[in-house]
Amino acid sequence: FVKNVPPEQINSFVRKLPEEKRKSLYSVAKELSDHGLIQIRPGEFSTIDEDTDDYQK
Fold this sequence. Notes:
The protein is mainly alpha-helical. It has 5 helices and 2 strands; from the N terminus they run E-H-H-H-E-H-H.
């Protein structure tokens, strides 16, 4: 991914996310991307966390 903002701003944003979203790297990356804090390069994003969530519990 490419940072669009300083790391401190990313860290602050992540700390404010609900615990449920912080539990998954996929969810964190998606939130950061959706809010314009990072740009995910094509081919670098996988939904494996959501697809296998039931098996991870």
